[in-house]
Amino acid sequence: MAAVIEALSGSEAEEQEWELRRDMAAVFRIAAREGWNEQIGNHNSLMLPGDGPPRFLINPRGYLFQELKASDLIVCDLDGKVLQGSGELRKVAFHIHARIHLQKPEAKCVVHVHPRWLTALSLLRDAELRLSHHNNLLLNDRVVYDHEGDEPVHQSEEGDRIARLMGDRSVMVMRGHGVTVVGPTVHDAFDECFIAERTAMYQMTAMSTGQPMHTLPDRLRRKWHGAWGDKIDARLHLNAWRRVLDREEPDYAS
């Protein structure tokens, strides 16, 4: 494989890219286990480090998350051209991911999935994550709700609107659609998506009882907008999952 990271050379550059590919492949396999993906749809992307024109890794069209390997990921530019790898970039993936990467350079990793609980929350009129669980104390100030995106994303203008609406938030609950989570690293975006989905699960389960929900004191909010992993053990979480995959699905790293 030709090195993508031009600031390095030879095997060092290749290994750095491969480690990023392994992280991304692990996220796809974990997402499959958790039921986050929509058949062969949904997509996760990562900007590659290095000099030269910006390029990102993403899953090619037509693969289930559960079968993706590190070597399957394709490299594209921000115009949607496939530069490396075998496969096609799905148009909706381009309109969401490339535009977010372009408008928000700090969003190195973009996770766009349809997990059960966050997607169910997105279907409810005016529903938002309550300040009800300890997770909410850090999470809620990071979430933005898209109440306008009723149509599928078929053009770059819609991707630009999504990127603008996200602003300095890292989690977007997309009405009637799913969720988009951004982060400065693979592990930040993955872990924040994981925690947001768990939090939605707790809330939706509590709401299903029909009983009034308790509200935590607003003074306990942690009001954090920095990198998720600076407050949470995001890297350790992904490392733990990779150990499981190394034992049970080692082909993810190939």
UniProtKB/TrEMBL annotation:
Listed Pfam families = Aldolase_II
Matching entries from Gene3D superfamilies are given as:
Class II aldolase/adducin N-terminal domain
- Which segments constitute the Class II aldolase/adducin N-terminal domain? 22-204
Q: Which InterPro entries match?
A: Aldolase-II_Adducin_sf (IPR051017), Aldolase_II/adducin_N (IPR001303), Aldolase_II/adducin_N_sf (IPR036409)
Q: Which PANTHER family is this protein grouped with?
A: ADDUCIN, CLASS II ALDOLASE_ADDUCIN N-TERMINAL DOMAIN-CONTAINING PROTEIN
Q: Which family does it belong to?
A: Belongs to the aldolase class II family.
Recorded protein name is: Class II aldolase/adducin family protein
Annotated source species: Pseudoroseomonas ludipueritiae
Q: What is the lineage of its organism?
A: Bacteria, Pseudomonadati, Pseudomonadota, Alphaproteobacteria, Acetobacterales
